[in-house]
Amino acid sequence: MLTLRDVHTYYGKSHILHGVSIEVGQGEVVGLLGRNGVGKSTTLKTIIGLVHPAQGSVDFEGQDISRMPAHRLARLGIGYVPEDRRIFRLLSVLENLRTGLDRQGVSPERRDALLDKVYTHFPVLRERRQQAGGTLSGGEQQMLSIARAMMLEPKIILLDEPTEGLMPRMVGQIREIIQVLHREGIAILLVEQNVPLTLDVTDRVYIMEKGVVRHHAPAADVRANQDVIHQYLGV
Amino acid sequence: MGLPLDQIFIQTVNGLVNGMILALVASGLTLIFGIMDVVNFAHGDLVMLGAFVGATTMLNTGNFWLALLVAALVIAIVGAVLQVTTLRPLLGRDPLMTILATFGMSLVFQKYALWQWGPSARKIQEPITGQFSMFYLQYPWYRVATAIFAGAIIGGLYLFLKYGKYGIWIRATTQDRVMASAMGIPVPLVHTGVFAIGSAMAAASGVLFGPLAGVTQTIGLDFTLRAFIVVVVGGMGNLGGSILASIFISLLEAYAALVVSPAQAVIVSFLALILTLLFRPTGLFVPTPK
């Protein structure tokens, strides 16, 4: 469904991605591991069109999307949950959700159903729906960020370090929601530092180093062969 | 010497009326700055062009309200074209670029107005001609109506921003352009839309202001300057702050005019600007930043 072929991305003059090739199938949960600064977040930003690749192609459902602006990609069904959550701090929780909900072709019934769904998964968002996004705790903001992406009814969600800095209880909740999304057939590309969690919830993982993919294997294999983790991730 | 209570009351009314017109100009300017970081030096000239378009429509139709509507629509289109051709290519570049570009547009607009409408002042006939007595003065109802009408437009903008679908798009884009785009909001279109709204509000101010003074091609600069003062004093990009600052500055000038000549009274607004920049550069009417 999503295919990156030999993607090179630059920030100004610095060459960040040196030919990344990644594939995510329909409904598949794929992990992207690697130390800090190897280009994992840049890979996600390249997919969602926040930076455009200088070379290589990004295909989504058979269409070349490497030159499309982010707002069109969101409409095509790519949800993005950035590393720093990027909640609209002055918008209420409900308004944050509405940024993804107020699009053409969403019937009032569909809106209610979508809101109901996220409120069921994240009851705290229902309680706080009139509260400004900036007043939520870190964990609540993470939930809102994921819920907001869900409003787009995406076919794939790009999750950038969703458990970073969260309490263990919250991490458990993020794990649950990843599994729920998986059951619903939504594909996920998960960037994480939390290796056990990633290996637990994903089907396959890519391991990146210095802007390229160094290793690619089913999650079960990596679980069985901890040397790989040690070699590339140093944990 | 006792306090001249009657004069203070009259100047309060004057200050409020001027403040509301200024608020209408400034809220467009601050909306544009907030969402695009564009310092629009041509904003006052959109007020001026709006006044001229209004005056021409008024001359041909005799209908003030139609003139107001036509001016707002025409200038909204002018603003949208200006944004797409001049400012969109400069988005994210050095602010100096947009300052120079809009300053250039300001000169183009002034020269165009001079060429099109000539150097003599035009007057727009006020739609409400009655007066009421306030102490020793016959005060025109139209001035009061202007304040109310400006307030109604600002109120409409507030409701639109607060509850409308596109209002949420505008607020989301103002806060985080990148994330708004990742949520499927067509950010370039929102920018153009906001510029059109800001321009329409400027044009409306021009038409409302028209009957109070003559319309010439040079009135824009004064509006730009005053609007900038209140946008800075109110906190850059902060809508509520700009509105409060407009009223604050206009009242300040009105009261100062009791003591010194009106020409000198303008000095107090520059003084307020300097003091704000020195002691509270984030603006007077915004919560203290954490």
Main features:
heterodimer, A: 235 residues, B: 290 residues, mainly alpha, 2 strands
Characterize this entry briefly.
The complex is a heterodimer of chains A (235) and B (290). Chain A is an alpha/beta fold and 235 residues long.
Question: Can you walk me through this structure?
Answer:
The complex is a heterodimer of chains A (235) and B (290). By secondary structure, chain A is of the alpha/beta class. Chain A has ten helices and ten strands. Chain A has helices spanning 40-47, 70-76, 93-101, 108-121, 123-127, 138-150, 168-183, 195-201, 219-224, 226-233, and strands at residues 2-11, 14-24, 29-33, 55-60, 63-64, 78-81, 156-160, 187-191, 204-209, 212-218. The longest helix of chain A is centred in the C-terminal third of the chain and has 16 residues, at 168-183. The model of chain A has no long low-confidence stretch (mean pLDDT 92). Chain B is mostly helical. In chain B, strands 1-2 form a two-stranded antiparallel sheet. Chain B contains eleven helices and two strands. The termini of chain B are far apart. The A-B interface holds A 48, 50, 69-71, 73-75, 80, 82, 86, 88-91, 95, 98-100, 102-103, 148, 152 and B 165, 168-169, 171-172, 175-176, 178-188.
Kindly report how far apart the N and C termini of chain A lie. 32 Å
Radius of gyration of chain A (Å) = 17 Å
CATH class of chain A: Alpha Beta
Low-confidence stretches of chain A: none
Number of helices of chain B: 11
Largest interface: A-B, 23 and 18 residues
User: Which CATH architecture of chain B?
Assistant: Orthogonal Bundle
CATH-defined topology of chain B: ABC transporter involved in vitamin B12 uptake, BtuC
The description of the largest β-sheet of chain A is: 6 strands, mixed
How many domain modules of chain A?
Answer: 1
Number of strands of chain B: 2
Mean pLDDT of chain B: 91
End-to-end C-alpha gap of chain B: 46 Å
| Spans where pLDDT lies below 50 across 5 or more residues of chain B | none
Q: Report the oligomer.
A: heterodimer
CATH architecture classification of chain A: 3-Layer(aba) Sandwich
Q: Supply Rg of chain B.
A: 19 Å
Mean pLDDT of chain A: 92
The helix fraction of chain B, in percent, is over 70%
